Automatic annotation (TrEMBL):
Residues 22-404 form the FAD dependent oxidoreductase domain. This is L-2-hydroxyglutarate dehydrogenase, mitochondrial. It comes from Iris pallida. It catalyses: (S)-2-hydroxyglutarate + A = 2-oxoglutarate + AH2. InterPro entries: FAD-dep_OxRdtase (IPR006076), FAD/NAD-bd_sf (IPR036188). It is an enzyme of class 1 (oxidoreductase).
Amino acid sequence: MLVKAARTWIRRNAGTATESADAVVVGAGAVGLAVARELALRGRDVLVVESAGTFGTGTSSRNSEVIHAGIYYPPGTLKARLCVRGKELLYRYCFEREIPHRQIGKLIVATRAAEVSKLEDIMRNGTENGVEGLRLIEGSEAMKMESELQCVKALLSPSSGIVDSHSLMLSLVGEAENSGTTLSYNTTVIGGHVEGNHLYLHFSESKALQNHAEDCAVLPQLILSPRVVINSAGLSAVPLAKRFQGLSHGTIPAAYYARGCYFTLSKTRFPPFSHLIYPIPEDGGLGVHVTLDLNGLVKFGPDVQWIDGMDDTSTFLNRFDYTVNSDHSARFYPEIRKYYPNLKDGSLEPGYSGIRAKLSGPRQPPQDFVIQGEDVHGIPGLVNLFGIESPGLTSCLAIAEYVVSKLSK
Ligand SMILES: Cc1cc2nc3c(=O)[nH]c(=O)nc-3n(C[C@H](O)[C@H](O)[C@H](O)COP(=O)(O)OP(=O)(O)OC[C@H]3O[C@@H](n4cnc5c(N)ncnc54)[C@H](O)[C@@H]3O)c2cc1C
Ligand SMILES: *[C@@H]1O[C@H](CO)[C@@H](O)[C@H](O)[C@H]1NC(C)=O
Ligand SMILES: *[C@@H]1O[C@H](CO)[C@@H](O)[C@H](O)[C@H]1NC(C)=O
């Protein structure tokens, strides 16, 4: 019973298995779903293929769920532009559909005099990026807003917030389906080939891969030649693109992976903070920060643990190690106490972890999102989405807009 949803979709597209088809989106995370919805709203017949048994089991459900303001990223980058635009679209989307979210604001804090100049840099970039309402405030003012906070100066970002990512994705799925999108779960894209400037996608049931040797010599159970292919496979977008035979490998960036672990705060009746609290960003991430979820749970994280890549099949099947080692809490306490000195011993419990899809390694400068269309690789209709780490959740609706605009050029 190969990929029943896909077969039905193919029949509707009036093609045999290797003939042309309309649009295929690889990956049902927040980004793939937002793109699928956008394509479907514009009249395309969309198939979303997802290797897992349902949507949103990858990075999209393993993050801070913060609606980022767009402060950190160098002006003019895709991260800066798509975050600021995405935030606007996301607040409106959530408001109109009653998706749980709250604009609680954020304080980025300098805990030592030496950090104040960094705060000023961040403020300058943020303002240039078009983030409204940013304000540098004295430590005393910040500590009046948050009685448990310790800092010498802070940057207040009133447009930052939190969102329930599962409700968001559920809504995107619903709207995509209402516009005729088909979702095929337990279906993996194992590669593809280019023939006459056209990309053919190779599919297999995920089950067929599960017990297979690591080099993934599995034969495709289905081959399709869609007009449009969006590779939004998250952590596996790079290894998947490398399996598109005939796609120039020179255009595909190197992939790096960095795990981020969260600890939750136990034994508190009331959350100690009402804003998101972020230290100055560190190498590879934004620093061990305080996030609140919509149920009032307080989380600290994520840290940065660089991990080695895996074989392709394991990335397709999301076999990353998500274990949160409770020993790591020893490193969290001193980090957190820099701005939250009253954090009690024994109050941190292992939470969950997520893995960042990075395009730069340890001690290398951060990279921008890489979104490549025909202009880069020469294959009409193919868009590869690489390095969609934070702020990818915030940006998902803007990424969708951007991808569709790339296709219509
Ligand atoms: C620790 C951490 C914290 C973060 N915090 C924030 C935050 O607060 N705010 C924010 O805006 N962003 C944040 N992000 C970033 C955000 O989570 C991601 O940018 C976003 O979720 C990426 O979505 P995606 O759809 O690209 O990827 P994913 O959600 O990973 O979806 C990709 C999907 O593709 C599927 N797939 C993979 N390979 C194949 C294949 N070969 N065939 C079929 N399907 C396949 C996977 O199973 C998966 O479901 C954070 C990320 C991390 C790791
Ligand atoms: C996906 O596979 C799992 C495990 O084999 C199975 O339990 C589940 O019902 C499948 N889901 C779909 C939508 O086919
Ligand atoms: C601000 O932007 C510049 C590029 O204009 C970049 O080099 C720098 O790293 C950014 N600083 C911060 C703190 O984000």
